[in-house]
Design goal:
The protein is of the alpha/beta class. It has 14 helices and 17 strands. The chain starts with 21 loop residues before the first strand and ends with a helix.
Amino acid sequence: MKTFAKGGVHPAENKIAANAPIEVMPIPKKAYIPVSQHLGAPATVVVKRGDMVKAGTLLAKGEAFISANIHSSVSGKVAKIDEWIDTSGYRRQMVIIDVEGDEWEDSIDRSETIIKDIKLSKAEIIDKVKEMGVVGLGGATFPSHVKLMVPEGKKCEVLLINGVECEPYLTSDHRVMLERGEEMLIGIKILMKALEVDSAMVGIENNKPDAIQHLTDLAKNYPGISIHPLKVKYPQGAEKQLIKALINREVPSGKLPIEVGAVVNNSGTALAVYEAVQKNKPLFERVVTLTGKSVSKPSNFLVRVGTPVNELIEKAGGLPEDTGKIINGGPMMGKAITSTEVPVTKGSSGILLMQKKESSRMTALTCIRCGKCVSACPMGLEPFHISLVSRHQKWEDAEKAHVMDCIECGSCQFICPSARPLLDYMRLGKQTVGQIIRNRGKK
């Protein structure tokens, strides 16, 4: 069974919502839509207070090279453009809309007819993906049109589709592959046309046999697309680990997948590309898993961007009494949110309500130099050393130890018998060293 070579761990899968079909979430009474839901520069607001908007109306334009357009997910009146708390815990600029009905822009094809014929050219596809504000839905939210613009001198040989969903608890990608598989495969063909490649490989962990079988059957009608079961091992879905597992190539330190002839996209992103290109639909809704061991109705919701998280929690049966933390994302790479009033964004793959006993940290003990964190690191780093030098603010040493190669998967902290906060210091080191490198480049 294919997998990556270095490191990796096996946390409990807890795919509680795997059998819950996608349910359409009711439209919120008020939507809080951030102007930055992507990696890169925030978009520039193009509406003003009092403006009437529809679902699909452009709210903010991504003007920087790495940025993305933001569209309204609802119809109604722009109440104000103000700061509101987001999933990071900070107040960010948002377009706040009082919802009235559910009117969509006339240009969006709302029919359920699946359109297989791809009429747009390579350049038109890239422009449409940009116009519709599509970003990577696997968590990083990198603007998808930028990924499709292969740098001069480089060539994409294969498109890799990440259907792994190795993060415990999360099942949104699993449901998309089962329920929207046909559209997803057409989305993959669109991406192949934009990248001018003849081959696409879809990697799926073998704990999703129904999705593997379903897509294998569908792919028979889509030449060039192959489905590949992968061994269950975290973080199998990380970009560099997926590349190693599927095509046995290693991305050099500090480089991007295109260096080894690959471009990686998430399965949910492929669906968003289909809707953008074939249906003229901007990315303003996505599937979100709402789950947890004490949640009365673990669910997968199709949610409009800007919907407050507390509305998802209520729809899934309310906040359990034993909730210790609310996590945006999964338990390994997700981050705790400070308020349930934060809105769902393009990057919200799941909301996890963790039990107190599950979410409380053990007391950190002295490092016993067992080397388990080194063995678990999928990037071949020395987390015990990097976290130590980061803790003591020795940023030059952290850079020399390749802190920038850390993918923040949390495998080191998960495996540590002394419960050391390794990931916390790895993140601190990466953030600080990254800023030092950027400042150095400005000189």
